[in-house]
């Protein structure tokens, strides 16, 4: 996890839910949290097979533009980080995207 992201996490209240994290990160395109998530999302979409499947699904099936798909990956990474910190568990990219999500 990038140091920038850890620093941003320290200023957030402990009782915030995952959706509140996502809303906070999307409030301002110049937000440090959004900046901190951009490169990890781009890298994961290129190199992790599960994240790449989710990214390709967004482009091919949902018809999103590339930047929109990267932002969706950023949001999903943020929710995964929230879950990891809450449950004290490692990142598991197999849980990032499942075939059942393709039908929605």
Task: Describe this structure in a few short sentences.
The protein has helices at residues 3-10, 18-26, 32-47, 49-60, 66-87.
Features:
104 residues; 0% strand; 5 helices; mainly alpha; globular
Topology at a glance:
Layout: H1 3-10, H2 18-26, H3 32-47, H4 49-60, H5 66-87
Class by alpha and beta content = mainly alpha
Largest sheet: none
pLDDT < 50 runs, ≥5 residues: none
Number of domains: 1
Distance between the termini: 30 Å
Helix and strand pattern: HHHHH
Q: In percent, how much strand structure appears in the residues?
A: under 5%
Counted beta strands: 0
Give the overall shape.
Answer: globular
Determine the oligomeric state from the structure.
Answer: single chain
The rounded Rg comes to: 13 Å
**Helix coverage percent of residues?**
55-70%
Q: What is the average per-residue confidence, as pLDDT, rounded to a whole number?
A: 83
Descriptive account of the structure:
- With about 100 residues, the protein is mostly helical.
- The chain has one domain.
- The protein is built from 5 helices and no strands.
- It has helices spanning about 5-10, 20-25, 30-45, 50-60, 65-85.
- Helix 4 crosses helix 5 (about 65-85).
- It is globular, with a radius of gyration of 13 Å.
- The termini are far apart.
């Amino acid at each position: 996890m990038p140091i920038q992201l850890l620093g941003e996490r320290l200023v957030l209240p402990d009782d915030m839910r995952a959706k509140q994290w996502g809303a906070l990160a999307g409030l301002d395109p110049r937000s440090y949290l959004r900046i901190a998530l951009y490169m990890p999302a781009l890298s994961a979409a290129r190199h992790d097979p599960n994240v790449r499947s989710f990214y390709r699904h967004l482009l091919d099936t949902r018809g999103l533009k590339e930047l929109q798909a990267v932002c969706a990956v950023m949001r999903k990474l943020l929710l995964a980080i929230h879950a990891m910190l809450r449950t004290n568990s490692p990142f598991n990219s197999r849980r990032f995207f499942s075939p059942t999500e393709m039908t929605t």
